[in-house]
Hints:
The structure is a homotetramer of 261-residue chains.
Chain A: H1 6-31, E1 43-48, H2 52-55, H3 66-83, E2 87-92, E3 137-141, H4 152-158, E4 163-169, H5 171-185, E5 188-197, H6 203-214, E6 217-219, H7 221-230
Parallel strand pairs in A: 1-2, 1-4, 2-3, 4-5, 5-6
Helix pairs in contact in A: 1-6, 3-7, 5-6
Amino acid sequence: MVEETREELEAQLEVLLEKVFKVGAEEYYKRGFKRRVGYGNRPAIVHIDMANAWTREGHPFTCRGVDGLIDAIQQVNTAARAKGVPIFYTTNVYEITDSSVPNDMGLWHSKIPVESLPADSYWAQIDDRIAPEGNDIVLEKRRASAFPGTDLQLFLAANHIDTLIITGCTAAGCVRHTAEDALAYGYRPILVKEAIGDRVPGVVQWNLFDIDSKFGDVEPLADVLNYLNTMPPFGETVPKPSPDRQIEVDFDAKNTVPVDA
Amino acid sequence: MVEETREELEAQLEVLLEKVFKVGAEEYYKRGFKRRVGYGNRPAIVHIDMANAWTREGHPFTCRGVDGLIDAIQQVNTAARAKGVPIFYTTNVYEITDSSVPNDMGLWHSKIPVESLPADSYWAQIDDRIAPEGNDIVLEKRRASAFPGTDLQLFLAANHIDTLIITGCTAAGCVRHTAEDALAYGYRPILVKEAIGDRVPGVVQWNLFDIDSKFGDVEPLADVLNYLNTMPPFGETVPKPSPDRQIEVDFDAKNTVPVDA
Amino acid sequence: MVEETREELEAQLEVLLEKVFKVGAEEYYKRGFKRRVGYGNRPAIVHIDMANAWTREGHPFTCRGVDGLIDAIQQVNTAARAKGVPIFYTTNVYEITDSSVPNDMGLWHSKIPVESLPADSYWAQIDDRIAPEGNDIVLEKRRASAFPGTDLQLFLAANHIDTLIITGCTAAGCVRHTAEDALAYGYRPILVKEAIGDRVPGVVQWNLFDIDSKFGDVEPLADVLNYLNTMPPFGETVPKPSPDRQIEVDFDAKNTVPVDA
Amino acid sequence: MVEETREELEAQLEVLLEKVFKVGAEEYYKRGFKRRVGYGNRPAIVHIDMANAWTREGHPFTCRGVDGLIDAIQQVNTAARAKGVPIFYTTNVYEITDSSVPNDMGLWHSKIPVESLPADSYWAQIDDRIAPEGNDIVLEKRRASAFPGTDLQLFLAANHIDTLIITGCTAAGCVRHTAEDALAYGYRPILVKEAIGDRVPGVVQWNLFDIDSKFGDVEPLADVLNYLNTMPPFGETVPKPSPDRQIEVDFDAKNTVPVDA
């Protein structure tokens, strides 16, 4: 039996996933899922793990297709800086990478090779093509999500941010967990479609489908840029006081009985 | 053009996903991912959203293939109760489902129909085929993960639990976010393969693949039962003091340069 | 030697504390401490542990001077309800009060008699003189602060509350930890001076002094009522987007050397 | 009227507080409060804010009596290092101290002069008399407690620490909030009596009294040193699996009625 090359497999998967996502989306819409969380008034940006370990060749964490991400992120940054929107970068690094002593790698070392991410190496630094500027903040995180173990939530809450625009990698790891946490903690997650990467076939598409169905809005770069370009200067914004109203399902939970009860 | 039925599509997807996951797993292994977090010594069980809204026909949240989950969960509970292992159930419900006033649905109402989950209805109750007993604890959660907004972490920490055995639904939603959080906060996530459900084609398989690659160990029911059956009584256990050692990647982050630098 | 009665001791303490707090406040003002966090635009109320165990005679947790608190809280509730301001009550209770098995009392059972607070007793219920109404939310908490293990923060964040008006008991326990957490997590803590109680001599005064110096504003009931009476209906409010500006200390940290260096 | 000097006032307060704490402690003991949380088996140390801003003359945050703290902390560190016990230091600092732009000072800038604590100044560094060594970890925190916004809890959980030995300053601020959080999150707080400082009269005594009554054990330096000197090497320890059993109050909450009901 001849095995497909990775490229052939990805092409087949692309075709099939289109159909699968169509069926899945129909099911979700019918049930009242896949709503739009929408943009708020007072956003911040977070670029997940766009450090050299993820963006440059030769590291166990190297991702695919990073050049496209870099280009999209540059455009987001230019638009955000013009309005004074706060920009965060994360990098996933550890003070102690010796697993024979108490260390800050936690259980993640038991799943993935975080011992290759010491805090003070070249690999830990944000890719200089999108280097932080001015008041940009670099968060050294220890887990997948940008929230646990960092002061991101403290910053977002005290500055009454209502929207978190998310880019970076990886789709199945740090980007997804960050989007889930953002929604859970009260920040509208907007994921920039062209600015999210990963390593293995199908993984970006699937995770963006799941996220868009349940946790945040996956939006084209052009829309995100338009939002940033047309918003007022950040200093003049006030947050949307509550979530957007939605068309609700016609289901009276208190007065229905299950079909099979 | 003739469109495939859902069943035909799922059959095609099943075949293709097997190949895709094989390629993905090889890539992960090569890079040092997809390690085993392993079982600890002092587990707790959490059954995610096995309430009527998910397990019975006729609700917007109804899942597929629930009978198999119920059966697997009954077996897990029997084994866990024989050893005094703590058992949690979650149900995702809200005190205030009127979105025109301040309410506890948060931003999740902006993505999925949580207005159909009032706290005091039939649908909110745990399926009586796996009804809580004795000191089992039912957590009323508001978000996908079982951690934010509940006292699960407080219980796990003070009782020095080291392992969280996870079942329930949905794979792409509450189960995955719970597994990610469990790993982040320091509890070994063990997912019972036969006991996890969802709603749309491919979504269980894909999420279990992602979780197993990065966040927790997806294990067959038989292995989980064997672990529970052969552990000492819970009251005699002490937690594993630290994560299991792993075979580490041969990569010296401080003395390498990127291929493309 | 004749020992003072408790009343005599409290009278002496009252006189001395006035002097001590004057000296302390001067020291704080000189250094730039004891600033005003100020009222925001979009408040919520939280009444800490005004359940029968704290408000009625005969329980290990019974507090002193509760009648005054009840009266003040009734006034706060009347003013808050007229504007649609969300009201929370906490009660500190446990599902499992048997410390010989895994339980939800945590380490707090190792300091105070939380075994006397089972979740389903008379003592756990909010005092019926200030009974919850309508959409008021009762939070069953397990720790001192109203934040860990509850969904309070999720509610405050998603509804963009900016101010947390705090009453109840005890000053040194649940009220103080709640005020500290509120400030940490980004909510302006306003403590209603006449509505905070405790059990032993001097403890209310000292804790309100500490809180006002570092964590939140202790304000007279009349001021809090005036704020609520003059604010717009809650549904028309938008949160203050950022903390109030303050007069800052004249100290250049980057260009000073220590006196003793 | 002649006003007392600060020294005279402190002398009077010392005498009166002794009586007040005796009365308070009797009340607490009678009710079943002021129990001993006790030492666990697997400790970590945290030195709160022993950076130059707190330990050296000439800064708005300068504390009193710091030399005694330094001496005690040196002894704790020597004993802890001999056993391989993990040591944390916190320093309270900010990346952005310009309050006219979005910044990481949060609401705390609205109460105390945190604008004098930029991250990269002399004042932010740990006092070199107790300089960090080897694998010691310095946490840059933004709030009072060492927990929110840092990865302390992630470290403690994954390494199954059961005890947190706490020193530093200030008693009414960062030390107290850290002790409260440690207990809440499941770590036995042990406060080293001789190693805790603050700024104004009476504040250390009062806060240690409150903490010892409700949140953690205040222990003499000699006892803490003895514990460290007699424990096994850290690498050989396993955590205590559950809180210590306590003598419980004789109160049946389900079958009592209030005195005033």
